Amino acid sequence: MIVTESLSKRFPRVTALDRLSLDIGPGVTGLVGANGAGKSTLIKILLGLSPATEGRAEVLGLDVAACGAAIREHVGYMPEHDCLPPDVSATEFVVHMARMSGLPPSAARERTADTLRHVGLYEERYRPIGGYSTGMKQRVKLAQALVHDPRLVLLDEPTNGLDPVGRDEMLGLIRRVHTDFGISVLVTSHLLGELERTCGHVVVVDGGRLLRSSSTSDFTRTTATLAVEVTDSDTHPDGTAALREALTAAGVTLRAGVEDGLPGAGHILLLEAAGEETYDTVRDTVAALGLGLVRMEQRRHHIAEVFRPEAAPQPTEVPA
Ligand SMILES: Nc1ncnc2c1ncn2[C@@H]1O[C@H](COP(=O)(O)OP(=O)(O)OP(=O)(O)O)[C@@H](O)[C@H]1O
Fold first, then answer.
1. Which of 65, 71, 89, 317 would you call most buried, defined as having the most Cβ atoms within 10 angstroms of its Cβ?
2. Could you report the per-residue pLDDT of 250-283, keeping only the tens digit for each?
3. In angstroms, what is the span from residue 34 Cα to ligand 1's centroid?
4. Which pLDDT belongs to residue 320?
């Protein structure tokens, strides 16, 4: 779907992309990176809207330097920033975008109705966009990216500004773009956690460079950490120490580091989650020691760990 070879983009004061080589196949792919990592710059180059300084890129087999218009015929784009006219309705705007993509009037109206229904805006479709919530505006932006039935959509921070419920709804819609319509998706975010749930593949960029590109399952396997907190008991006045010892003996790998900022941070053990069996081992070990299990949860990954792999909690030898 997308191939880049040593792609660079230099602005006078900053290198936004630095020899980035990617090969992204069909499906839903997440492009994750902190603000300024180069995500929007990459998207603009892929759409043929901004020339690269060096290197090359192909989208759907078309060279971005020569075939921008053809690429935009088959690729939908949801920009990051609010760019919607406040005085027109969602229907008017999306029909207009469909017409701009070359659809005849009747097809444009039909596709607009279908697409607005898909994104959950059917009831409000005749109201002016200016009165919409942030979530509704994001849906209009998604609808206009889908209306011309593209093969691929590039979604730039579609969950920006949304509350947790709005985020989940948007992520659900994005998954359905692929499952219901077979459209491939490249979606950017600065939050690794939300992309892990949505994407089959995750690409991480930092400072315009590729940090990592792998399937989400590989990613989760190598970074999954379980946080476990237990109570003390009369037999084990330091329940955490007793559990640490017992889990080490049971072959569970403990990770260094503490869960800063959480209540009872010093009493939380971090473990490498090797699979479902780790949950069973922890539950059985806690029960065998007669301790109370306060929490056992998969720790949300912190983006800093991915950007600075050396800062990630490493498996550690814990003295028995
Ligand atoms: N037109 C431009 N002129 C100069 N510098 C630019 C331009 N566009 C982007 N940059 C710089 O390039 C770097 C990458 O920006 P880019 O917008 O691609 O990052 P991003 O990962 O999309 O982050 P964000 O989500 O904050 O937009 C930043 O340092 C940005 O300031």
1. 71
2. 999 888 755 444 444 567 888 888 777 888 999 9
3. 11
4. 38
Q: Which two tokens stand for residue 100?
A: 């701009």
- State whether the beta carbon of 41 lies less than 6 angstroms from ligand 1: yes
Q: Locate the ligand 1 atom nearest the alpha carbon of residue 40 and give its number.
A: 22
- Kindly report whether the global pTM for this prediction surpasses the value 0.80: no
- Atom 2 of ligand 1, nearest CA residue: 11
CA of 47 to the centre of ligand 1 (A): 16
Cβ of 39 below 6 Å from ligand 1 = yes
Phi/psi at 161 (5° precision)? 80, 0
Instruction: Establish whether residue 207 lines the binding site of ligand 1, counting it when its CB lies within 6 angstroms of any ligand atom.
Output: no
* Options 3.40.50.300, 2.60.120.380, 3.30.70.260, 3.90.226.10; CATH of 222-306: 3.30.70.260
The band of 220, judged by pLDDT with boundaries at 50, 70 and 90, is low
Q: What is the largest CA-CA distance in the chain?
A: 78
Question: What CATH topology corresponds to 2-219?
Answer: Rossmann fold (3.40.50)
Any atom of ligand 1 within 6 Å of the Cβ of 14: yes
CA pair distance 132, 305, nearest whole angstrom: 37
Residue 218 and residue 221: Cα distance in Å, rounded?
5
CA 233 – CA 208 distance, rounded (Å): 51
